[in-house]
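re the bet — no i am not wrong, look at it urself. input seq straight from the record:
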Amino acid sequence: MRKLVVAVVVFAGFAGLLGVGVLTALLGATGGSQRDWTSCAAGLGPWGEGAGRGESDAASLDGESVDIAQRIIEIGQERQLPPRAWQIAIQAGKTESNLANLTHGDRDSLGIFQMRPSMGWGTVAQVTDVEYQVHKFYDVLVEIPGWEEMRPGTAAQRVERSAFPMRYHEWEPMAAHLVSTEGDVEGITGCDDLPSPSVLAGQAVEYAVGNVGAPYVWGAAGPDVFDCSGLTQQAWKAAGVEIPKYSQTQYDEGGVPVPLAEAQPGDLVFWGYGRDPQAVHHVALYLGDDEVVHAPQPGEEVEVTEMWDSGELLPHVIRPADEAPAAEAAAVPASGAGR
């Protein structure tokens, strides 16, 4: 009973933080009727630090590059692919050719994506035709298992099969900017009518707090029993945002890293052996005021408690739904791709 009372108080405080109008939207929203926000803003945000880099990089594109980016997006829309697919293709094209339809490249590599006729990508005429190239890129992308959950640069590498896989991440902020309503390419996200990140975080918190008292079962992800990552995964799923299972994977791929000191309700808080980000063993949902809701361990129940630090609390949280840029990935100098 004490835990339930604390949970209600915490949620009431969180509702006050959001404001009456947002709370009304939060309580009125129904998870079943929402479109998947993961393929919109949550999947578009840059993983880099330094706000404005995406906009400045986009502003440096010439007319041909802007036209190609526009066509990548239009074809993605025609094929009813989510915005993340458009972003992946733009990052690949920017990395391989600076979004130019090149008639030269490493060995017989040609076109926007430096596709090689000798490796089965098509004829010379095909791999220098913009329409063919973009469709071919999407054809290969959608056959990659789990591409929607990958970091965009990782998915680009899976299509391109480059010997230098990290370089595709460099253009993530720019590609995210181009597929946003703030970008230079018009009318692209189709996500304007979806709830804001603060509303989504509120829905995740509401779900998790609503399951206070549910038993811990290792590996479980609801509906009545949970382990730590199962609770956080299902909480965000209730808000229409898909994040992976398992605490380590949620830390690596669950969203945007944010300093712990800047944590907001709904963020994922992590503990790792030796405070090592590669040794994550527990995750909780932040509620504000140094409190979390989590599924502790076998024999215990989902509870609201003060956030603790026994020497394992990690200095960054992960924000699954965010509109702002966060830590910039180190860029790897580009060099010739192999396929």
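see?? The chain has a mean pLDDT of 78. told u. also The chain has two domains: 2-33+197-319, 37-178. so pay up
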